[in-house]
Description:
It contains 5 helices and 18 strands. The protein is α+β, with helices and mostly antiparallel strands. The strands form 4 sheets. The protein has a 6-stranded antiparallel sheet, with no helix packed on it. It has a 5-stranded mixed sheet with strand order 4-3-5-6-7. Helix 1 runs antiparallel to helix 5 (71-88) and helix 3 (27-40) packs across helix 5. 31% of the residues are buried.
Amino acid sequence: MLRNLEAKLGGLVEGAFGRAFKSSVQPVELAHKLAKEMEENQMVSVSRSYVPNHYRVFLSPPDREQFASYEPALRKELSDYLLEHARQERLALTSRPQVEFHTDERLALGEFGIQAQLLSPPEEEAPAASAPSAGDFGHTMVYTPAGDSRLLEPVDDRRQVLLAGDGRRSRLSGSRVVVGRSRDCDVVVDDPNVSRRHVELRREEGGWSVFDLGSTNGMKVNGRRVESSALRPGDHITVGVTDLTFELE
Length: 249
């Protein structure tokens, strides 16, 4: 089963994509390192070994751009691979593995970072005293083409965050900000094409990111339709027909 999944991952870059990936990140390599992070971040409980179910993959801008045309298919194949790997190794998951892609300009071509987290750990089984807790997960391990690895230092950016658009500038507070048409949202957008809860901005280890909350019309970041994206100052987030600019000051 794993060999079949690896063949699918390899097939994603055949033809026109095969030439582009000679010196950049390979999907099969991502799968192997994701499985490695899964095994190395186990939480041992009374009767099971739980593993992370949420993975963030950080890529250099050119690597992310090369994945753009088939990113949804790649996320699914990597999720299938992790699910099968956990089954074969008898590792427990609290939910189907989720894989997200983000861009990090600190990474060079061919380098990629992986952050593994166990979200919603099981409450019925207390972890062993010597085992790491779910809060210990979340560091970002970077892998290089030479086979080396290192920890990616978190970005400590305490500047004021603003979202400009719709004729006003909104200062963001906290680590999660919901944008939508509902008056209950942190940032309310008066646009009939915007869902009640459209997107969420989250402060993470590497900075801020934006996530689509299953909106009807989706979102765009800098003109490209995405489900999630890391944010840099000056990035434009489009919800409905409204453009919002992410700013730091």
